[in-house]
Write a structure and sequence with these properties.
By secondary structure, the chain is of the alpha+beta class. It has a domain at 347-541: Heat Shock Protein 90 (2-Layer Sandwich), CATH 3.30.565.10. Helix content is 49%, strand content 19%. It has 14 helices and 16 strands. The protein has helices at residues 5-67, 74-84, 86-89, 104-118, 144-147, 158-170, 227-235, 300-321, 328-374, 378-401, 409-421, 439-458, 492-499, 504-516; strands spanning 95-101, 134-140, 174-175, 192-200, 217-226, 243-249, 257-260, 274-280, 283-291, 407-408, 428-431, 436-437, 468-475, 480-488, 520-526, 529-537. A 5-stranded antiparallel sheet has the order 2-1-5-4-3, with helices on both faces. A 5-stranded mixed sheet has the order 11-13-14-16-15. It has a 4-stranded antiparallel sheet with strand order 7-6-9-8, covered by helices on one side. Strand 15 and strand 16 (529-537) form a beta hairpin. It is elongated and about 120 Å long. It starts with a helix and ends in a 5-residue tail after the last strand. Mean pLDDT is 83; it is low at 348-353 and 496-501.
Length: 542
C-alpha cells in the first residue's frame, strides 16, 4: 500500500488542481463577459453623451433666436456657429441649420435670400402638396455638402415631417429615423439622421400651422448627422471602438439601420452578443453589439490554463516528495485536509446517490417478493427475477450514458425489445416524437416495456414470421404522453387467456404506471392481438 501512496496522492492532487483550473477558467469567462458588457455600456454611454452635447448646442442656438426675437440674419447665425467651432468642439455633426416655416410671401423670396446670403441661385424645392412649407435658409458651415441642402423643403419628406411634427407637439428635441441627407452626393455615402428643436416666436399671419402644434411655431433649429462620422466621433480610439455595432433608430429592421460598424469577429461571434434599447431624443435606439476583429479577451482564461499546468507540476512534485519515507505522514495529512475541504461540495451528489440507491433497493425487494409469490419454482423465480433486474439495469445504463439525468423514450424502448427478442429482431416498428424521460419515469417504463415485450414473446409469438409489433406515441393537446402498443398476430384468444389472469406482471405494470407515475394503463385483446395504451401526465415524465 505504501508503494502506491505517491500515485494516489498524484491523482488526488491532479483532480483538485483540475477542479481549481476549471473554476478559474469559468471565472475568467465570466470576467470577459462582464468586460464585454462594460465596453458595450460604455459605447452606448458615449453615444448618448455625444448626442446630448449636440442637443445642448441646438438649445444654445435656439437661445440666439429667442434673444433676437427670431430676427436672426445669416451673418449673425454664421458668426455664432463659427465661434462655437463645431468642427473641433462638436465633432460628428455635419451642420447646424435653421428651417423656416414660410408664409406665401416668404416662399417667393427664398431664391433671393439664398442668393444674397450664400451666393446660391436656387428656389424652394421640391414641390409639395403639404399645407405647410419650410425651407432651409441657414446652414453652417457653408461647405460643399451643406450648400446642396439650402432651399430644401424638409416638411415635404415623410420621415423628416414626422419628426418635425413630434418636436412641434412636445417642444423638445426629436430625432428622425434613417434618412439620406442631401449632402450625400459622392461614392462615400452614409446613412444620416437629423435632430429638430422647435423655435417658438411671435405669431404671424398667413403661416401654415403644423397639426396640434402651437400657433407661434416659427421654425426649427436642427442638426444634420452622417451616422458613420457621428459614431466615429463618439467612440474615437477608446476601448469601446473594438466592438462591432449595428444601430437602428426605431424597430431593428434593415430599413431603420443607420450604422453598421466594423466586421464581426468570427472567433467570438458565438460567445458575445448584446442587445440594448435606449430612448434618445424622443426615439428608441436599438443597439446590437458584438466583438469586432480587434476585440481582445482579458488574460483571465490564460491564467486559468497556467494554473492548470502549475497544478499538474505541483501534483508531480507531491508524488516525488512522498517517495521520501520521512514525509509520508505529513503528505497524507495534507491530502486529508484538502479532501475534507472538497467533501462539502460532494454532499449534494452523495445525498442524491443515497436516495436513488434506497429507491432501487426498495424496488428490487418488492420485485423479489412478488416474483417469488408468483413463481412455480426456483428456476422460474431465477429467470423472472434476473430478467427484471436486467431491465432495471438497462434503464440505469441509459441514464448513466446521459449523465444520470434523462433518457430518450425511443432508446429505452429499443433496448428492452433487443434484450427480450435479440438484436436481430426486426418484426417491429416504432414512431413518435423525441421524448426525454427523467430518472423515475425511465426506471418505471423500462420495467413496463420489459413485461410487455416478455409477454409478446412468450404468449403472442411476435418474433415469428408474419407477426409484428407496432408501437407509436404522441403528446396530446393537453400535454399528456399517449403510447399505443399493438401486437399484430393471429393468436388473440391465447393472449387473452394470459393477459386476464391477473399475474404479477400485470400488477407490476399497473402499479408502476398508475400508482408511481399517476398515469392510466389499459389493455385488451383485439381481433389481431394484444392492444395496450399508456397515458402519462407531462409532470410524470420529468
Amino acid at each position: 500500500m505504501r508503494n502506491k501512496l505517491p500515485l494516489i496522492a498524484f491523482l488526488i492532487a491532479s483532480a483538485i488542481g483540475l477542479g481549481l483550473t476549471l473554476s478559474a477558467f469559468w471565472a475568467g469567462r465570466q470576467a470577459n463577459h462582464l468586460r464585454f458588457e462594460q465596453l458595450a455600456d460604455d459605447a452606448i454611454d458615449r453615444i448618448e453623451l455625444k448626442l446630448s452635447q449636440h442637443i445642448s448646442l441646438l438649445n444654445s442656438t435656439r437661445s440666439l433666436f429667442d434673444v433676437l426675437q427670431g430676427e436672426v440674419t445669416q451673418k449673425q447665425f454664421a458668426r455664432f456657429i463659427g465661434n462655437l467651432d463645431i468642427t473641433q468642439n462638436y465633432a460628428g455633426v455635419q451642420g447646424i441649420g435653421y428651417a423656416d416655416i414660410l408664409d406665401e410671401g416668404e416662399i417667393r423670396s427664398v431664391k433671393g435670400r439664398l442668393q444674397a446670403d450664400y451666393g446660391v441661385e436656387r428656389e424652394l424645392f421640391p414641390e409639395s402638396g403639404q399645407p405647410v412649407r419650410t425651407a432651409i435658409t441657414m446652414l453652417e458651415p457653408p461647405d460643399v455638402r451643406n450648400l446642396r441642402a439650402l432651399g430644401f423643403d424638409m416638411y415635404s419628406e415623410e420621415i423628416r415631417r414626422t419628426a418635425m411634427q413630434a418636436a412641434a407637439r412636445s417642444g423638445e428635441a426629436q430625432v428622425t429615423g434613417k434618412v439620406e441627407l442631401l449632402q450625400e452626393f459622392d461614392d462615400n455615402k452614409q446613412a444620416g439622421f437629423l435632430i429638430y428643436l422647435p423655435y417658438f416666436g411671435p405669431e404671424l399671419a398667413n403661416v401654415g400651422t403644423i397639426s396640434r402644434a402651437r400657433p407661434d411655431l416659427r421654425g426649427f433649429v436642427y442638426a444634420a448627422f452622417r451616422a458613420g462620422d457621428f459614431i466615429e466621433a463618439a467612440l474615437g480610439y477608446t476601448p469601446a471602438s473594438s466592438l462591432s455595432l449595428a444601430i437602428y433608430i426605431g424597430e431593428p429592421v434593415p430599413q431603420n439601420q443607420v450604422f453598421a460598424g466594423s466586421p464581426v469577429s468570427e472567433y467570438y461571434n458565438d460567445t458575445y452578443m448584446l442587445d440594448r434599447v435606449v430612448t434618445l431624443a424622443g426615439r428608441d435606439w436599438h443597439f446590437q453589439i458584438m466583438p469586432s476583429e480587434t476585440f481582445k479577451e482579458g488574460p483571465e482564461t490564460g491564467v486559468a490554463l497556467l494554473l492548470g499546468a502549475v497544478s499538474l507540476l505541483m501534483a508531480a512534485a507531491l508524488a516525488v516528495s512522498l517517495r521520501s519515507q520521512g514525509k509520508t505522514l505529513e503528505a497524507y495529512r495534507e491530502v486529508s485536509r484538502v479532501s475534507q475541504e472538497a467533501s462539502a461540495e460532494k454532499d449534494f451528489l452523495l445525498q442524491e446517490m443515497k436516495h436513488r440507491i434506497k429507491n432501487s433497493i426498495a424496488r428490487v425487494l418488492a420485485i423479489a417478493r412478488q416474483t417469488a409469490a408468483s413463481s412455480d419454482g426456483l428456476d422460474d423465480f431465477t429467470n423472472s427475477f434476473t430478467s427484471r433486474l436486467q431491465a432495471m439495469a438497462a434503464s440505469q445504463d441509459l441514464l448513466t450514458r446521459s449523465h444520470g439525468e434523462h433518457a430518450q423514450l425511443s432508446d429505452l424502448l429499443k433496448n428492452e425489445l433487443f434484450q427480450v427478442f435479440g438484436e436481430e429482431f426486426d418484426n417491429y416498428a416504432t414512431h413518435g416524437p423525441d421524448i426525454r424521460l427523467g430518472v423515475k419515469a425511465t426506471q418505471a417504463l423500462g420495467l413496463v416495456f420489459h413485461e410487455l415485450a416478455t409477454n409478446a414473446l412468450k404468449y403472442a409469438g411476435v418474433a415469428q414470421s408474419g407477426n409484428r409489433l407496432d408501437i407509436h406515441w404522441k403528446m396530446t393537446g393537453d400535454g399528456k404522453l399517449q403510447l399505443q402498443w399493438l401486437e399484430q398476430t393471429g393468436k388473440g384468444e391465447n393472449v387473452e387467456d394470459v393477459s386476464t389472469s391477473g399475474g404479477f406482471g400485470t400488477k407490476l405494470m399497473t402499479s408502476l404506471i398508475e400508482a408511481e407515475l399517476n398515469g392510466r394503463f389499459e389493455r385488451h385483446i383485439g381481433t389481431s392481438g394484444l392492444q395496450a395504451m399508456i397515458e402519462l401526465p407531462k409532470a410524470s415524465l420529468r
